[in-house]
Amino acid sequence: MAIGNSTLQSCFQEQLRLKAQVRLLEYRVKQQQVKIVQLLQEKEIQYSDTGDENSVIDLGEKRQYADCAEIYNDGHKRSGFYKMKPLQSPSEFLAYCDMSEGGGWTVFQRRSDGSQKFDRVWADYEQGFGNFVSTNGEYWLGNKNLHYLTNQGNYTLRIDLSDFEGERRFAQYKSFRVTDEESSYQLSCGEYSGTAGDSLTGGFHPEVKWWADHRGMKFSTRDRDNDNYEGNCAEEETAGWWFNRCHSSNLNGVYYKGPYTAKTDNGIVWYTWHGWWYSLKSVVMKGQSLRPVLSPAAGTVHATRGKVQGKGSPDGQTSLSGFSNSQQGQEQYLSGPKT
Ligand SMILES: [Ca+2]
C-alpha cells in the first residue's frame, strides 16, 4: 500500500508539534522544581523562626489567674507564656501553659537545647531563671513560685522526656507538692504512672529507696547542701535538685546530648529509661491542678486526665521489668549510692 505524501507530511508536523510540547513541559517541570526548592527553603526559615518567636500571651489586667488550669478553663486554649498569681503569691509571674494533653499544665522546668546554664546557686533556683519568652526556652520557674503553685490545690506532676533517637516517654505522679523556704522546698509526690519508669521515688527497686528516693528530700544547690550524703551532691552533679545520696534522676544536669562520660553522673538523667550515662534531649516538668473549677470546661479536663493515667500504668510495668536488663544492672554498680 502506497503512503501518500500528504500523510507523511502531517506525520512530520505532528512529530514536530509533540517535540515542541515535550520541550515546553520539560521547561515547566524545571520551573516547578525551582519553585519547590524555594518554598521548602522558606518553610524551613519559618519553622526555625517559630522556635525563637515571642510566645508571651497578654490577657490584659481584667482577671487574675492562679495557674494555667484556670486560664485554660476560662477559654484560652493556646499554649504559651501567661501571667499568673497563685493564691498566696505576693506577685505575678510568667509561666508557660501547655494546653495539650487535657490542657492547663503549668510548666515549671524545660530543657531543650542546653542554651541555659543550670549549675546555679540557691538564690537563682529560689527566684527562677532562664528564657521566659520562647516556646522552647529553657527555664526553672523558681522554688518560691513552685511552692505557691503546688500549695493551692492537689497537683499532678507530669514529666515529658525525649531522647536523641526520637523516642518519647513520660512519668506522672499524683499529689505533687513543694514546701516553703523554711523547710527548704521539700518535695512530696504520690503514686507513679507512665512509660519512663519511676526515677523520682526510687520505686523501680526496693533496695535503692534509701538513697535514690527523692521524695521527702529538701532542695539542694552547691551553696546549700541539704542531701543525705557526706559530700555535696549538688556540687558533684553540677545542678540544683532534691538530691538524696545522690540520685536516680537529675533533670537539671548538664546538657551532654546522649551517651556521655564524666567524673560523676551529672547529665540530664532519668535512670529507669536510659541509665546514668545518657543525657536526655528534652525535658518538660509540669503540674496540673485538681482544684474544683467553675467553668463548664472542667468536666472535659477531668475526663481526659483520667484516661491519660489509666493508659499509663501498664506501660510503666514494662519499664520496671526493663530493670532486670543486664546492662542496667551493671550500671547500678558503676554509680549507685554515694559512699
Ligand atoms: Ca551532704
TrEMBL record:
Region (Disordered): 304-339
Localisation: Secreted
Top-level lineage group: Eukaryota
PROSITE patterns xrefs: FIBRINOGEN_C_1, FIBRINOGEN_C_2
One annotated GO biological process: platelet aggregation
Listed PANTHER family: FIBRINOGEN ALPHA CHAIN, FIBRINOGEN LIKE 1A
Name of the featured protein: Fibrinogen-like protein 1
Lineage: Eukaryota, Metazoa, Chordata, Craniata, Vertebrata
